[in-house]
Amino acid sequence: MPTPDHTKSLNILKAALRESEGFKATKLTAKQQADIKSIILGTHLTFRYLLITALLAKVTEPRVHMRSLQTGADLEGAYDARSLCHKVWVPFEHSFLDCKLGGSNEPYLNKPARFPSIAKTNAVRGGNDKALLDRLYDLLEGLNNLSSQDHREAFLYAMSLINSRDGATVGDIDLAPVALTVTRTRQFLSLFLASSFGGETAVVVVGAIMAVRFGKGYQVEVHPANQAGTSSNEIGDIDMYEGKRLILPMEVKDKNYIRTDVEHAVSKAKVACGRLLFVTGQHAIPAGDVRPDALVALYAEAGFDLAFVSVDQLIQTDLPLMSEEQRRVFVQLMQANLGTMRAKDETKSHFADCLANAGLVEN
Question: What is this structure's pTM?
Answer without folding.
Answer: 0.57
